[in-house]
Amino acid sequence: MQLRDNAAYEQDNRVVLTLDAGGTTLEFSALQGGREVAEAVILPSVADELEPCLQQLERGFRKVLEQIPGQADAISFAFPGPADYKQGIIGDLPNLPAFRGGVALGPFLQEVFGLPVFINNDGNLFALGEYVFGFLPDVNQQIQAHGGSKRFENLIGLTLGTGFGCGIVCGGQLLLGDNSNTAEIWLMRNKVQTDCCADAGIGRDKLRVFYAQKTGQDLTDVPAPDVLYRIAKGEAEGDSKAACEAFALMGQVLGDAIANTASLIDGLVVIGGGISGAADLFMPAVMAELNGRIGHLHGAQLQRMPFHASYLEDDAAIAAFSKGDPRTLAVPQSSATVTYDALPRIGVGLSTLGISRATALGAYAFAVSHLG
């Protein structure tokens, strides 16, 4: 699958049916040219029983089909794993017990509707949507507007919510892996609690655990992350210092996981999901990790990553990032000169599309690219 630029997708007339599948609801829609062409249809997921759940899936897509002119060209959506996404087979899902034991969901829908069916995980499709329609083209356009010469072709997309998800696009290719398990960085080692995975330190419940540890409160008495945010900002009653430290601890774990991943991929990083709304509390710790030091033999200290990371949070940061360090060099034994940017760097920023929109656009781009 080779991706095209967003203009090519926006001019494509093919219609793709999409689905946002959750543990309690199923939200159906349709996209054409990267734009929604149907009103969303929301149905209960009926997650405990397979046949009623499959009936809801069929019913939802049929309701969307009734709204669009002509025929649809494909079905493409994100669905939780574990799964064999290439085969369209969904495995054991904790939030959707009806699918335990393995269900050939893709082949079922293909047989019902007579359309190509593409299923992927939400992290992959979020990254794909940001690569084609969101963060990556936005950053490249801003660099160009500021007169910079650098252009980015690689992107790491991170989702922060109940858990920690990731997708990676390199040089126009979404990395999928031989087992549909690429970019499972939630299983990286947790810097703060080294006998645990990174996912044990990133997400809604983990913030509550950190706060409980700092305050000595029972976990059942700790409020939701949005309240913890207000406590940290001094806008709600509670231990402001402990709340700030909880977000900073999550930032350390997240920053370490990003540093490991970015050192392999060397590209932009975009963060989305509900927890990203508290970026002002955890991003300082993330950036300190990315631009910090790491030990080597005999007490040596090295730069944490082979390039500098910039948080693209405002116009001034983007302008400095765009400029880089342009230099002109003479070609040996020649009168010719060459220019190059001597500052290796990556940018980190927040999604402006939002996770639902980016994921739907990723599903659309994935389908259209496979249709050819």
From TrEMBL:
Transmembrane regions listed in the UniProt entry: none
InterPro entries linked: ATPase_NBD (IPR043129), ROK (IPR000600)
Family listed: Belongs to the ROK (NagC/XylR) family.
Full protein name: N-acetylglucosamine repressor
Lineage, opening ranks: Bacteria, Pseudomonadati, Kiritimatiellota, Kiritimatiellia, Kiritimatiellales
Gene name per UniProt: nagC_1
